[in-house]
Structure prediction request, 309 residues.
Amino acid sequence: MRPPAAPRQPRQAGTPRQPAARSTAVTARPAPPPVPERHAPTPAPTPAPREARPAGTGNLLGRAGGQRVSTGLAARMAERDAAARRLRLVRAAVAAGVLAVLGAVAWVLLASPLLALEEVEVSITGTTVDEATVRAAVEPELGTPLLRVSTAAITARLTDVAQVQTVQVVRSWPRGVAVTVVAREPVAAAATDGGWVLLDADGVQVASDAEVPEGLPQVTVPLGQAKETAPALRAVLAVLAALPEDVLGQVATAGASGTAQVTLTLDDGATVRWGSPEENELKTQVLRVLRQQPAGVYDVSVPRSPTTS
Prediction:
């Protein structure tokens, strides 16, 4: 510390200023703090020896932790590859199983005798087709796996039979078919050189016979497809097909000189002027009423104005 400076003396007037004398006293400085005692330096820890790297494994990061990162990445990639291989194996196994099942099903349906055709159910509407004819048409398909049975071929065979009007063939699983046949029914008989042929409403010759079957009227129009007779024959057959059984049973002969001049001859000799094959149901009802009165001619060609004579 420096000692306090001496008080300044007042300067008299006219006395020149004297420079102040510098103090030569040495100011005492405070003692430096004690130096702490130094200890021997602590030796640095010895680094652990590095593990030997697997051959072919590179240090991706070039640092101390790069080896661990590389090993973990390789393990994950190997695990992913193994999972992909397992998935491919599972898919291949599933595909092989599906193909095996499909092959077994195809064999059972197309080649196996397990579902081969054995049973034939026949349903016939009409009297001109017998069951033996229907079964003969199905016989070539017996023993064939049901899925390969040609219903179209059976239908074609039966359609070629003159007595068959319509036919339907349906598979009946597991080992059968159902055949439904509608037979053509004759509505008239026409004379030929060898006897009589039976005609249905379409003019198809259903069968032939030496005599006219009982209850079937005779057609006086010549057979054939001549332009003069064919339309008249079709008109006569259309009228006969429209008659109910009780009225048709009373008709002995039927003929026509044209499509609008159909004439019926009844069993008792009476004549019915039918006219055209139109309004057949109304004409039938009118004829029933007129037949309650005996007459030689019943004219129902105009059913709303019938006449008798």
About this structure: The radius of gyration is 62 Å. DSSP finds six helices and twelve strands in the chain.
